[in-house]
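Reproducibility note. Readers wishing to regenerate the assembly model reported in the main text can use the exact inputs given here. Chain order matters: entities are listed in the order in which they were concatenated for prediction.
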Amino acid sequence: MQTEHLESHPETFIRKWIFSLDHKTIGLQYMFTSLIFLLFGFSLVLLMRWQLAYPGSALPLIGYYLPDSIAAGGVMHPAGYNALGAMHGTIMIFLGVVPLGVGAFGNYFLPLQIGAKDMAFPRINMTSYWVYFIGGVLMLASFFVPGGAAQSGWTSYVPLSILSPGQTMWLLAMTFLITSSLLGSINFIVTTLNLRAPGLTWSRLPLFVWAQFVTALLLLFAFPVLQAGAILQLLDRIAKTSFFIPSGLIVGGAPVEYAGGGSALLWQHLFWFLAHPEVYVLLLPAMGIVAEILANGTRKPIFGYKEIAGSFCFIGVLSFMVWAHHMFVSGMKTSLSYLFMTTTMIISVPSVAIITCFLLSLKGASIQFKLPMLFALAFLPMFGIGGLTGLPLGFTPTDVYLHDTYYVIGHFHYVVVTGSLIALMGGIYYWFPKMFGRKMNEFWGKIHFWTTIVFMNGIFFPMFIQGLAGVQRRLYDPTVQAHNLVVQPTNVLMTYSAILLMIAQIPFIVNFFVSIFKGEKTEDNPWQATTLEWACPSPPLPHKNFEKIPTVYKGPYEYNVPGEAKDFSPQHLP
Amino acid sequence: MNQNYGWGLPVQASSYAGKLDGSLFLLHGVMILIFVLWAFYMIFCLIRYRQKNSGRALYSHKTPLSSYIPDALMLIFEIWLIFFVGIPIWAHIREELPKEETSVALHIVAEQFAWTMHYPGLDGKFGKQNPSLINADNPLGLDENDPDSLDDIVSVNELHLPLGKPARILLSSKDVIHSFFVPEFRMKQDVVPGMNIPIWFEPTKLGAFEIGCAQLCGTGHYRMRGDVIVQSPEEFENWTKSKTKS
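Running the prediction on these inputs yields the following structure tokens for the assembly.
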């Protein structure tokens, strides 16, 4: 293995902390970077929420410090609102949740859970992080270029995106982010295939590894399509090609200088071919984490291990066949909707199966309500709402009305925020002792948990009410249209919930940093868990993780095995 | 405050609004039922199987066939829903266009940030259009030398329709993607440059309703709105006559 020589020699500061080849350091780099991006992406939405609650009024405190491209004289303008909306979506998805779920947790814990010394390709791993970092910097830098950041939504529908300012930077940044994900996914796949510890068969893999493996396959197969689409759109912008520009466009009364002949719908097909699997990229790692924590917190084998792993795979395959449910009212051939409605409704069955297995895991359990367990348990009903509200959006007769309303926004925020992000936060509390050898404070963690759950629902639940009333998404000032007026007061509730949610993260941030240095020291296996990451020291040894590569003798969740004195039976002990 | 809107769905003002709302209520009923069942089961488990109440956990790798019942029920319900509700309704609202003779035919052209309605007028024929003739007074570039165009009616942001007669509309866009959305009609359709997309609906309620743009179309997206005015057939005829150039 190419990193073997590193085990014995002291490393320079740069090699150890900046251009590190150790999957654990790279995982931590991903974690810190993505958490900062999450915080930044969230603060963007606070600005938007102020505008939605009090349209046209000056932003308090910070209004005058904002660049003119967002707010002139302290009052947000429509172009600024659109830019914030596009950047909020892009940052949260591509720079926040995916790098946290895949880059951070996947990098750190996949090799540990399969008993490997490192990733298969440490140098590719390092490159993946730095390419992601460059993509992130480019994305942020786009706020400061003339014309400001991209303004056409995270979906960047053509031709608007091609004709609007800021889009070139967005496309360049996306090209870097996609490249980073591709490098990472190859690494995850090869690592899982080749570096499993002796005895770790596929039916003994922890569900987190299954989730990461399927996720990596999704990234590998879906992202190249968006990469191609992004490059075509970039050519349309800078080389004036017309891949996505139809003939005869007249903008502001004057014909555009494009040859025409392109297709506006083609971009949507390319985009959603990535972006629907992307939803499962956001979700599967979170489900993997929930499975780990649930098995540990219930002290029993997870119910339906094979059914869950099979559902992950089934979701993975089917997620490539549902993309056009985002396009029922896009103008594509109407009879195509029958196929996509059917596949979309069918994909809810494995999701129901997973939730059912998780719930049945509680039966006969001996539940310990420790901090990570609270997050895993909250995931179930919260993701439940997100998943169920997907049904009327995948069903054409109801989607016609709900499409592009706040109902959609509520649906995917329940999936990604109260679902994925809650599970990822649970993952931080669960694996913190492994990463730093110390525990996070339980009391402040519980404060963080309860306030976060309450305020998240305060933001997202009213979105369903707004959506049913017909409030469209991406409106700079909803009060211009009469049908939005009745439900306008909910915007005030949502805005204050969002501000309070931000405040509720302060205990988490302080707890996180204080615990790194001053937290209660813990043993190697504080949760009395069974999987391999708990068989190595905390934190694991640099570049080799384990004193000796473990041998695996049993399945991943052997809790309360009859006849054994302890209530847990680690995988590496015969 | 407008009586058409409240907490909940806007008033139903088209012939198929009731059908679409029916499936919305059906689906939400099922969703709430599933959620409540999940929630009760979960709360029961959390209390019954707390460490304090439960003692040692049950060790089992069995997945009895009965555990697949929820998945199977979901699958059966969805297949029934698709074939007996989804496909017939979708075919009705999107694929079965009403006959031209019995409907009001018109074109709607979207642009940043306005809706332009184009009626063929008394002769029932749409006049020729030429993009080079487009100006502020002639948003569609109608060619005045074409006899068909003389009686055409062009109305900006105001869609007049008669009650009880289906409207058959061809949507097109001059610049970017917009989306024609009338909440009271439960009508939404993206308007895509380079495409002519046919839609239909039948107004069943007199009064004024709102057209919104549901697809981000630029900085004026939020203020891209229009009005639908549904009139009795006589009033609609009078309006048509008053708008016809003589």
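We highlight two features of this model. Chain A touches chain B through 107 residues (CB under 8 Å). Strands of chain A lie at 71-72, 75-76, 250-251, 254-255, 438-439, 520-521.
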